[in-house]
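Slide 14.
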Amino acid sequence: GYNDIDSKNFQENKMTKESLRGHVRVDDILKVDYLKVSKKDYKNCKSNPEVIFKNTFGAPIKVPEVEEKTEGVDLELLYNLIYQANQKIDRILDMLESKDNETHAFAGSECINISGSGMRFAANHRFSIDDIIALRVFLPLASASRSSINVLGKVKTVTQTDSKNRYDTTIKFKNLSEDDREIIIRYVFTRQRELLRISSDLKT
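Slide 15: predicted structure.
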């Protein structure tokens, strides 16, 4: 009897801790691509979201397989760094080409708050409650083999911001694999530590 109760409490504590991990949030500025998914496409493909992501964003970019090893150089990491540098250059060019930098600063697709259970971002389109959205989030601290993560989300809240045609949009992740959830949670904790370190350095 005692062992059964103890085991039950252990499982409940473990589930509570996992739930709390999934809700730990962090603010950041990230590139996010997004597009509404039709209810028909979601119903037909929700058991295989990769089909939705391929139709929405195209085939995923893969890091080339490296056969030759150069002494002292991690070529796979180098390819990934070059790819991420190109992404940053594209974002800078977008900002330079923008006629309204103030509007871009609110960058609905980039100023986000993210956790293992969902995210909030300012969209340039007014979605409706319960819309399903496909999102590609570029995580700069992801593994060398991946620099972005694809997720499906259901719209929970929509609020117009002070900027014209910008809407604070909160989504809850749908059909998120445990591997992808773990990647997001690891990113959130890594980013939190980074922000605490920066804050500590500023104080000193």
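Speaker note: The chain has a mean pLDDT of 76.
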